[in-house]
Write a structure and sequence with these properties.
The complex is a heterotrimer of chains A (174), B (782) and C (309). With 782 residues, chain B is an alpha+beta fold. Chain B has 17 helices and 31 strands. Chain B folds into three domains: 192 residues, Aldehyde Oxidoreductase, domain 3; 347 residues, Aldehyde oxidase/xanthine dehydrogenase, molybdopterin binding domain (Aldehyde Oxidoreductase, domain 4, 2-Layer Sandwich); 143 residues, 2-Layer Sandwich (Aldehyde Oxidoreductase, domain 4). In chain B, helix 8 runs parallel beside helix 17. Chain C is α+β, with helices and mostly antiparallel strands.
Chain lengths: 174, 782, 309
């Protein structure tokens, strides 16, 4: 049991962070943003309905606004900043930029986390699976077209989808 | 030029956005800042008998409590008419209207302080039916009355109707912008008695003017800087928390962070006004449109906001992009005790496009004509006279758009075995044999820029200098609000193209430079793009003149340097003069700076008959929607969307695509799911749990074709592109649903209950109350 | 632990998944002096199978249940809850704790005759779900597990809402068939405060099923839907009337969903098994090798309003 006023610890992007002075009912989102200053995690609905606050909690994709921070005592929290600068997360970020998947960008950190999680679990996810799997992340600017394009570009880069040149070379146009 | 206009240049703010480092208004924090919160009226209409803030002020940690009594300047604000109180004083006129605000050491204390404010309300009967508030016996909901504006357009000579007529009433629900980042600002009181605001807005200078007036300060003491904006779509054009934050900061003499959560965001900014619209279209038996009558009732809610301008757009576009000999287009925007409504992407045009396109489909049915063919036959062409008397100038390739979109390949039929792709998705487990497909079309057009004689302008400042390494650099300073649309990208492309310098930096958008106007009305690429271009040209002129002078070239060259000298790939070249000098060398004598204010061509106001030359220009779009409907459950899935759009010159193909895809998605949301529902004036679904937005599973890939005829009087020939597709996506989807289920649809968003038989008689369902036919809101045109 | 907290007079909030409770705490809808977080209580995160029953710890997440072959109906119901994010953190115990009228899992558990295990300082006890939902959990108590019978036949869970994915249900329906004990159970969510069992329709279906083949006549599946509409129309009040869908639509949809769900469980005799099974499991049939049924019953008249068709 965690009572009001007690402190606890989170491992945020690999670093131990003591949480002191948070209110007991605080969500992981508000502790990350307001207590620890991790503002890359966005607050857009605080009901688990938009995905802007998505993080990996002990390796699993979670909406941090629905997680009680005190309950996450000792947990590993990975935000967009902790996904790493190499490998899949780098590719996801790069393709979001190259394919125009960013406009206002407020949903982007959550999307980058969710897409990285999805492509880790299901590298060859097809279009319908991708769309359904990302339904927990709302984007109001892009209409998702460029986000899907970015994901396909990541899959192409990683050899999961044929490259554009290969697709064009095929008689049916791919 | 690398990264110049016409190329898919990437966003300069993109890397920070994908890394999470980009700072939005809600991310700003300074040491010692206090937390502001707003107390709102729970009643749609109530007399405020007493407000007692003493208990709240006494709470430890509370630094300031402000109410209407603490507003030192003008008590009201507004974009067009200053009728919205900073805080409700004697009367609250909508549920959610601010009554007081507090600043406290933390958010929890601020919440407690709000709870400690005692307000005695005496509820009054609320006027929430927009079709009733103009009745002779309806109470005035405000000293200035219940009518924001009435427009009556009479077009054509002696009235004539065609032998074939279709007539009906349509209803469009209240759509929220639902930008993803809720409202937020950081407000800091300054030592000079002024105040500094870092705020997410669409129009810094308009905010400044309104904040200064209410604070009773000269404008120069109110300084605004644009903080990161997480989407806008019209919803940040009005003041929300700016004045409250400034009052709290000055009262507490401390920095204030004031921010809304989602519920407060839904209540805090004006959404798209709901509309009731009656139309009667007549045509010859050959399918030539003869007359269009429309009567529109737009619910402006409790305060004016943009309603007069929204109404003008709605009425002037009500006949659609069609030639029509006779038109009588009447509209009112009314005051109710519903939430104030205002600007959202499309600005009055999406509503009427839903109406006129439903009418065109029904006319096609009545005539036995193909709906595309009917539209092609009647589509406007440049040179045609619009119902306002305005002669349509410039390119408007409406028929070409229809042909293009109709020729796009159709998607494969619904597949058995893939529940994800059937209506309702995986959870509904629909049966493909109970799914019916429908195809629908919509053509629409939308005005660009501000209308009705407004001398709108945008200013930009450009400086060309050398960076620390001695390389040429362009610094662009514009107050244009980057809300996600990509002006920061386009501004750089323009500067590179005009000055031949790769390195462009954008100064923060703030009020230390002249106004760029609003990021709305599809205007910023044209207006602020034009300003940046003009300033770049002026910089080039000055630099070239300086070089010419230094090189001892003749006076005629110095006076008109661009006739003889050019900037090419980092060099100034004058073939005739035999001159060739590196840009860096030319700039070693000092930087060059220029400002430019761009004006569009003048328009005129509407006269009493609704005649004039009100709009600067238009852009058109045609959508084709394909939907699948579960016939038993009324569930709809949008299977595919194709769009042909009149885009003018394309400055950035990637950004264009993002705009039209996003605009289409918002139109899709209005078609099948998005509505802010009020019950007796109270919003009942102000959360993302209850106000559903389209997800990636709802929005199909867009098959997009751009038509790129340059707009003659616009910089580079651009047209604004973000709004038009929002106007046509909704009616195309509604048309496709109608085709699938074979019944006329009168209410948008279309709900499953509208598509299944629920009553023993099999009636479609209740028609929208009160606005049935021409009786609503005034006299019937004859 | 709980007892100690309660003796101190503190308001204790039990947190299982948190997907409902945390937003409620934030908005001030719920207030707590102390929170007992159950995420890390490992014994609550276990699911197990006995000879006749399946037991699922209250801390088991929806994601843990997706793809659980021993209970395909539950797996399917869990699969369509919310989004990936919600399924990863939302739990069985949380679904019982927050009791949303159209809560996805509750509808299935209601049809499956689930029992709920609660623990308090006075010990533990099993209660039928209906009784648990009526009585609630004791102030010092805690939901620790849910118990279900092992599937004895096909089970189907379907729901509808306002978009293609990640939606709160407007109406949900679960049909559970026990071919061994010759039982049909049907629960409808979204038409009352709690999911409701459709007793009359169930009895009707039991009599109509050919239990040797596990099939039902086409007309009977339609009539089943009509009976559900009648039963739902009798539930007062039909909840909620608001931004979602009207009461009459909910009634209608309940009938369509029930008729379809039953048809998927009990292949209608007219045109049975014409379609091969696909990779996306539609009907979750406990009996291996059963082809996916086709569904001719769900015609427009399958469940008209007021039972007339």
């Amino acid at each position: 049991m965690t009572a009001a006023g007690e402190s606890y610890q989170l491992y945020v992007d690999g670093f131990p962070r003591a949480v002191v002075g948070a209110e007991l009912g605080d969500s992981l989102l508000s502790v990350l943003r307001d207590t620890l200053g991790v503002t890359s995690v966005k607050d857009a609905c605080e009901q688990g309905r938009c995905g802007a606050c998505s993080v990996l909690l002990d390796g699993r994709l979670a909406a941090s606004c629905t997680v009680l921070a005190a309950d996450a005592d000792g947990a590993r929290v990975v935000t967009v900043a902790g996904l790493g600068a190499v490998g899949l997360a780098r590719a996801v970020r790069a393709m979001f930029l190259a394919e125009g998947a960013v406009q206002c960008g407020f949903c982007t950190p959550g999307f980058v986390v969710a897409v990285t999680d999805l492509l880790t679990r299901r590298p060859d996810a097809d279009d319908e699976e991708i769309r359904e799997a990302l339904a927990g992340n709302i984007c109001r600017c892009t209409g998702y077209g460029r986000i899907l394009a970015a994901i396909r570009a990541v899959q192409r880069e990683r050899g999961i989808l044929p490259s554009l040149e290969e697709s064009r070379a095929r008689p049916d146009g791919g | 030029m690398r990264h110049g206009i016409g190329q898919s240049v990437r966003r300069p703010d993109g890397p920070a956005k994908v890394n999470g480092a980009f700072r939005y208004a809600g991310d700003l924090r300074v040491p010692g800042m206090l937390h502001g919160r707003t107390l709102r009226s729970p009643h749609p209409r109530a007399r405020i008998v007493r407000i007692d803030t003493a208990a709240a002020r006494r709470l430890p940690g509370v630094a300031a409590v402000v109410t209407a009594a603490d507003v030192p300047g003008v008590a009201t604000y507004g974009l067009i008419v200053a009728d919205q109180p900073v805080f409700a004083a004697a009367e609250a006129r909508y549920a959610g209207e601010p009554v007081a605000a507090v600043a406290a050491i933390d958010a929890a204390t601020a919440r407690r302080a709000l709870a400690a404010i005692e307000v005695d309300y005496e509820p009054l009967p609320a006027g929430t039916d927009p079709t009733r508030v103009l009745d002779p016996d309806a109470p005035a909901l405000h000293p200035t009355g219940n009518l924001y504006r009435e427009i009556d357009i009479r077009h054509g000579g002696i009235w004539a109707d065609g032998p074939v007529a279709v007539e009906d009433t349509y209803r469009v629900g209240m759509q929220d912008q639902a930008f993803l980042a809720p409202e937020a600002a950081l407000v800091i009181p300054a030592a000079d008695g002024g105040v500094d605001l870092m705020v997410a807005t669409q129009w810094l200078h308009s905010d400044r003017e309104q904040v200064a007036a209410c604070l009773g300060l000269p404008e120069e003491l109110v300084r605004l800087t644009l903080a990161g904006v997480g989407g806008a779509f019209g919803g940040r054009e009005d003041i929300t928390l700016q004045i409250h934050g400034a009052l709290l900061a000055r009262s507490a003499q401390a920095p204030i962070r004031i921010a809304y959560d989602r519920v407060e965001s839904f209540l805090g900014h004006p959404p798209r006004p709901p509309a009731r619209m009656w139309f009667r279209h007549t045509a010859t038996r050959a399918g030539e449109l003869v007359s269009v009558r429309a009567r529109l009732v737009f619910d402006g809610g409790a305060y004016t906001s943009s309603s007069p301008a929204v109404l003008a757009n709605a009425v002037t576009h009500a006949a659609g992009p069609y030639r029509v000999a006779h038109a009588r287009l009447h509209g009112v925007a009314v005051r109710t005790n519903n939430p104030p409504c205002g600007a959202m992407r499309g600005f009055g045009v999406p509503q009427v496009t839903i109406g006129h396109e439903a009418q065109m489909d029904r006319l096609a049915d009545a005539l036995g004509l193909d709906p595309v063919e009917l539209r092609v036959r009647n589509a406007v062409r440049p040179g045609d006279v619009l119902p306002t008397g305005q002669v349509l100038a410039g390119p408007l390739p409406a028929r070409e758009l229809l042909h293009l979109v109709a020729a796009r390949p159709l998607p494969p039929p619904p597949a058995a075995g893939s529940e994800l792709s059937l209506p309702g998705g995986l959870p509904a487990g629909a049966d493909v044999r109970r799914v019916r497909r429908g195809i629908g079309y919509a053509l629409g057009y939308k005005n660009l820029l501000f209308s009705e004689g407004m001398d709108d302008s945008a200013m930009a400042r450009v400086r060309l200098d050398l960076d620390e390494d001695g390389s040429p650099r362009v610094r662009v300073h514009s107050a244009c609000a980057e809300v996600g649309q990509g002006f920061v990208t386009v501004a750089g492309q323009i500067a590179r193209t005009e000055l031949g310098v790769e390195q462009v930096v954008l100064a923060p958008a703030d009020t230390s430079v002249g106004s760029a106007g609003s990021t709305s009305a599809s205007r910023q690429t044209w207006m602020s793009g034009g300003a940046v271009r003009g300033a770049c040209v002026a910089v080039a002129d000055r630099l070239l003149a300086r070089v010419a002078r230094a090189a001892g070239l003749p006076a005629r060259v110095v006076e008109m340097p661009r006739h003889s000298l050019r900037i090419v790939a980092g060099e100034i070249v004058g073939a005739e003069a035999g001159l060739r000098i590196g840009l860096a060398d030319a700039l070693s004598h000092g930087p060059v700076e220029a400002e430019f204010t761009f004006h569009h061509r003048r328009t005129t106001a509407l006269d009493a008959a609704g005649q004039g030359d009100p709009h600067v220009a238009f852009a058109a779009a045609a959508h084709r929607a394909v939907v699948d409907v579960d016939l038993d459950l009324g569930l709809v899935r949008v299977v595919s969307m194709a769009l042909a759009q009149d885009c003018g010159t394309v400055l950035n193909p990637l950004a264009l695509r993002g705009q039209v895809e996003g605009g289409t998605a918002q139109g899709l949301g209005l078609a099948v799911m998005e509505e802010l529902v009020t019950d007796g004036g109270r919003v009942v679904n102000p959360t993302f749990h209850d106000y559903l937005l389209p997800t990636a599973a709802d929005v199909p890939e867009l098959d997009f074709v751009a038509v790129t005829e340059p707009q003659p009087d616009a910089p580079y020939g651009v047209k604004g592109v973000g709004e038009t597709p929002t106007c046509t996506a909704t009616p195309a989807i509604v048309a496709a649903i109608r085709a699938a289920v074979g019944r006329d649809l009168r209410s948008v968003p279309v709900r499953p209950r509208d598509l299944v038989d629920l009553s023993p008689s099999g009636a479609v369902g209740p028609a929208p109350s009160g606005a049935d036919g021409p009786a609503a809101g005034g006299a019937t045109p004859r | 632990m709980l007892a100690a907290a309660h003796e101190s007079g503190a308001a204790v909030a039990l947190l299982s998944g948190g997907t409902d409770l945390v937003p409620a705490l934030r908005s001030g809808e719920r207030v707590a002096d102390a929170v007992v977080a159950l995420r890390r209580v490992l014994e609550l995160r276990v699911r197990g199978a006995g000879a006749d029953s399946l037991t699922i710890g209250a801390g088991v997440t929806y994601a843990d249940l997706v793809g659980w072959s021993l209970s395909p109906g539950l797996a399917r119901a869990a699969r369509v809850v919310g989004s990936v994010q919600i399924r990863n953190t939302g739990t069985v115990g949380g679904a019982l704790g927050s009791v949303r009228p159209a809560g996805d899992l509750l509808t299935y558990l209601t049809a499956a005759d689930a029992e709920v295990l609660t623990a308090s300082p006075r010990g533990t006890r099993w209660r039928p779900l209906g009784q648990f939902l009526a009585e609630g959990v004791e102030a010092d108590g805690l939901v620790t597990a849910v118990r279900l019978a092992r599937p004895g036949g096909p089970q189907v869970h379907v729901k509808i809402g306002g978009r293609q994915a990640a939606y709160p249900a407007i109406v949900s329906c679960a049909v559970v068939v026990d071919r061994v004990r010759h039982r049909v159970a049907c629960a409808i969510g979204g038409v009352g405060r709690l999911p409701a069992r459709m007793g009359g329709a169930e009895s009707f279906a039991v009599d109509e099923v050919d239990w040797t083949t596990g099939t039902i006549p086409v007309q009977a599946a339609r009539r089943f839907g009509d009976l559900v509409v009648e039963a739902v129309a009798g539930i007062s009040p039909v909840l909620p009337v608001g931004p979602g869908e009207s009461a009459d639509y909910r009634c209608h949809a309940a009938g369509v969903l029930a008729s379809r769900a039953l048809a998927r469980c009990l292949h209608p005799q007219a045109t049975r098994a014409t379609q091969p099974a696909t990779t996306t499991e539609l009907a979750t049939d406990a009996q291996p090798g059963t082809a996916r049924p086709s569904d001719p019953t769900a015609g427009p008249g399958a469940a008209g309003r007021g039972g007339g068709s």
